[in-house]
Structure formats: C-alpha cells, structure tokens
Specification:
single chain, 502 residues, 7-stranded mixed beta sheet, 5-stranded mixed beta sheet
C-alpha cells in the first residue's frame, strides 16, 4: 500500500480528522457520519444507502471498509460510526445492521408460488386468467435479467425448484398442472417458507411469495379456529421478530377462482366459482426494500395498483421512514403571526423559524408546512386524516388541516415550494410562550382492511363475505406487526421537527 493510500484509509478510520486533509469523497463519508451523529432524523435508510453508495463508488479508496468479496463490511462501518458517536458524547446510537447489508448491485427477483389445494383454482383452464396475468405482469415489470437455478420456487410442504425459467413460467398455459408433481399440496409449511426468505443472506434479493395466505399446517384436522389463530399469530411474530433487518410489503388482490376450495380443519371441500382474494408478499433487506420503493428504475414494478385485481397494500418496516422533502412555507398574511424562515431554501427545505410572535390581538401563530409524502406507503384517505397524526411540543399545538396539493394552489409566492410537495399541513401554535420545537409524526396503524377481510369461518361459499375474506388473515398480520413494532405504543411512519430560534 502506498503512503498516499495508507493516508486515505487512515482518514476514514479516524473520523475526527480534519475534513480538509481528505479527498472530496472522503469528506462526503465523514459529513454523512457526522450528520447522523448529531441529528437523530438523519439516522435512517436514506443516509445508510447514501453512505454505503459513496464507499462502493470508490472501492480502492475505501478498501478497509470492504470485505474480500467487495461488499461493505457493516461491522467495520458500525465501529467507525460508534467511535464518532462516542466522541460526541455517546447520544447518537444507530444500528447500521438493521438494514440487512449494503447493496452492491442491482436488485434480484425471486418468485415463490404456493401450490396448495386451495391455490389451483386461481389458474384453471376455464377461468379468466387474471391471476396468471397479474403474476406475469409483476415478473415482466422487474428490470434486468432473471437468473439463478432457484429464482422460482414452488412451495407447499417444502420448497421446490421450478424446472424452468421466468420466460417459460410466463408462457406456461397451466402453471399448476405443470407443477403437480412438486411437493404435497395437502398443507403449507409457512414456517419453512418464510424462514427461507427471511434468512436470505443476499442483500439485493427481493422475494415475492404468491399465496392465498390461508394457514393450513400439517395435522390441523379437528382444530378450532381460535387454536389455529393463536398458532398463526405466535408463528408470524416469532418468525419476523428474529429478522428485523428485513422489511415486508403485502399486496392484496382479487382473482377469478374456479375449482375445489378446502376450508380449515376437517370440513369437507366444495366447488366454488367466483372471486377470491390472494396476496403477493414481498420481502427483502431493509436496504433493498428502500431502493425498491424509491428508485425510478423500480417504479413500474411497485405500481401495484395497476395490476389486475389490485385491492390494497401495506408496508411493514422496522424503523420510521425518512421524508423525501419537507419545508416550512412563508406566511401569507399578518394574521398568521410574525416569523421568518431560518436556514434552508425552497429546494433543500427550511426547517426552522426565528422571530416567532403571535399576530396582534391574537394568542396564536399559524404555520404551513409543505411535505412530500409520496414515499409513505399509506392510502390517500389515511394521509388526509388528522387522527392519524400526533404532535409533541411544550406548547399547545394543533393540526388545523391537511390538504393534498393541487395545481390550483400555486401562485408566484408558493410555487417553488409546491413543486416538491404532495401535501400541505396547517398548524396552530397557541400560548404566550413559543416552544423550542414542534414534532409532528404520522402514526403507522395496522390498516382497517386487515380486520375487515378476516374470517374465522370459511366453510360456506354462500356466506356474503366468502368472496372477499381470508381465514386467519388478521392474526397472521397482527403477529408480524407486533414483531416489528411491539405492543406498547403505535409506531410511526415518519416524522419531522420544526425548530424555533430566538
């Protein structure tokens, strides 16, 4: 190693070294670490991905941060960050291992197709073909080539390699008939299936499990619904609690079903022709799922709402998500009070105020915040509901309104802010003394549709809810939710903090 190369490595390992003594890329690494140490809101997926991208972009310069395979050594990066946090007073704890490893290339796709007794009816020869079309569209939308001997797995009592490629899978006229010899369709071993995807050591891999999500383990005959529900809740919680470095997105769709349906327990199967729900469960490292949700390259793949039969989606993520952009906006008129924006700009976002005073004859200040909520995986109605937000401050603060940004809102004064924003939030700060800070958080509640479309009795095709409900859906997803977030309090989708300066 040359003297110059040794000096560069030393600069990285000694984060406290003067920034001027390192290259511009080196400054970027140190700046990101320093920013995360000093600002809790910067300890997120976005900063992690940016930090590892800088390292991977200059492998010779950052050789000490790389493994023999050329991937980022998260343990080494963690130790450097911890040392910097310790020097700053030890208040900046950040678990870099929670993101499941740094990405060193494009994302990879793996498909798992459940072939159980109750799944074959979704792709019968007499059906509409909307199930196969939705799965094929998802595959075709994923950019890049699909390689690997186990890129497609047929799952039921175990996991079996599909004897073909993504191309032959898409062209197959009867995928369930073609895979009839693989496994035992009498029951589904969800523990084995999810363990395979959750223990995947390839950070770039994204796994899509296509399933009806009906818990049908071996030996369930004679079991009551309550017993099965308790089992599935405990199972899902245990599985995901051990793998918090993975994120999960669930997409609910409805497909044309024609065939034999097998209700839970030892009840007799029956023929059913009609609509039935099924799911695409997408799992991967937190870093991979972050790129999947945010990169333009994968926007078509994640446009689930355009798939045939789409109904709902929900994203499970261990840590709050960073906002793509948010900013305070200049006041419109004196009735809002007195204040000026401090620091930042319409491009970077202004997050602080100074000289804050209530309007003459009033005890309140009205603030408008513009925010880009496009990357928050919640429905439009959810984002507009004030009940889904909470405000923390040492002064009385209330949310007056939340509006979706429309072209009609733009004027010469605010258009430079609105071009970045999807929503406007109006806050009312009351009292004679202004706070030091106001934090607004969007709560991450388990969606109502999970309870709405759950059933404890799937024994009759004539029940009104049969075409839309899934046996055991709620306890399974509540188990995942509790594994990620616990039960003590409602977790957060995201948050932002407004600082008040003197």
């Amino acid at each position: 190693m040359s003297l110059f190369s040794g000096f560069i490595v030393l600069c990285v390992l000694t984060v406290a070294a003067a920034l001027s003594s390192c290259s511009s890329d080196e400054n970027r690494v140190q700046a990101l670490i320093s920013k995360a140490v000093n600002d809790p809101e910067q300890r997120n997926e976005q900063t992690f991905n940016e930090l590892t991208a800088v390292i991977l972009a200059s492998p010779e310069q950052y050789a000490s941060f790389l493994t023999d395979k050329g991937t980022v050594d998260i343990d080494k990066l963690q130790s450097v960050y911890d040392a910097a946090a310790k020097r700053s007073g030890g208040e900046g704890e950040w678990n870099l291992r929670a993101y499941g490893g740094a990405l060193s290339g494009d994302l990879q796709l793996r498909l798992m197709l459940e072939r159980s007794g109750s799944m074959t009816g979704y792709d019968s020869r007499s059906g509409s073909g909307d199930f196969k079309r939705a799965v094929s569209e998802l595959i075709n939308r994923f950019p890049g080539s699909h390689t690997g001997s186990d890129a497609i797995l047929i799952v039921n009592d175990d996991l079996y390699t599909y004897p073909g490629t993504f191309e032959t899978f898409v062209q197959d006229k009867d995928i369930f008939a073609s895979t009839a010899s693989l496994g035992n369709a009498a029951y589904t071993d969800f523990a084995r299936i999810f363990t395979r995807s959750l223990t995947d050591s390839v950070p770039e891999r994204v796994t899509v499990l296509v399933t009806d999500l009906i818990y049908s383990p071996k030996g369930a005959a004679g079991s009551g619904a309550d017993k099965i529900f308790n089992e599935i809740g405990a199972l899902s919680s245990s599985l995901f609690k051990s793998h918090l470095d993975k994120s999960m997105l669930i997409v609910r769709l409805t497909g044309d079903f024609r065939g034999k349906y097998y209700p839970y327990g030892d009840r007799a199967p029956f023929d059913y022709n009609g609509k039935r729900p099924y799911f695409m469960i997408i799992t991967g490292s937190a870093a991979a799922m972050s790129r999947l949700r945010s990169a333009d390259k994968y926007a078509s793949f994640t446009d689930f709402s355009s798939l045939p039969g789409f109904e709902q989606e929900y994203f499970f993520n261990r840590a709050p998500l960073p906002l793509a952009w948010w900013s305070l906006m200049p006041r419109k008129n004196p009735a809002q009070g007195e204040y000026t924006l401090s620091g930042g700009s319409s491009e970077s976002g202004a997050h602080s105020l100074k000289g804050v005073k209530a309007a003459k004859g009033s005890d309140a200040v009205i603030l408008t915040v513009a925010a880009d909520l496009s990357q928050i995986p919640a429905s439009a109605d959810y984002l507009l509901n004030k009940e889904n937000y909470k405000v923390e401050s040492d002064a009385p603060v209330s949310i007056e309104s939340i509006e979706a940004v429309t072209p009609e809102m733009a004027d010469p004064r605010n258009k430079r802010y609105l071009k970045h924003a999807t929503h406007l939030m109006t806050l009312r700060v009351s009292g004679k003394t202004m706070p030091d800070a106001v934090t607004v958080a969007l709560l991450n509640r388990l969606p109502d549709w999970i309870k709405q479309f759950n059933t404890a009795d799937d024994s009759s095709p004539y029940a009104r809810s049969f075409s839309s409900s899934t046996f055991g859906l709620q306890p399974f997803l509540e188990g995942v939710y509790n594994a990620y977030y616990g039960t003590a309090e409602i977790p957060l989708f995201t948050s932002f903090t407004i600082k008040f300066e003197n």
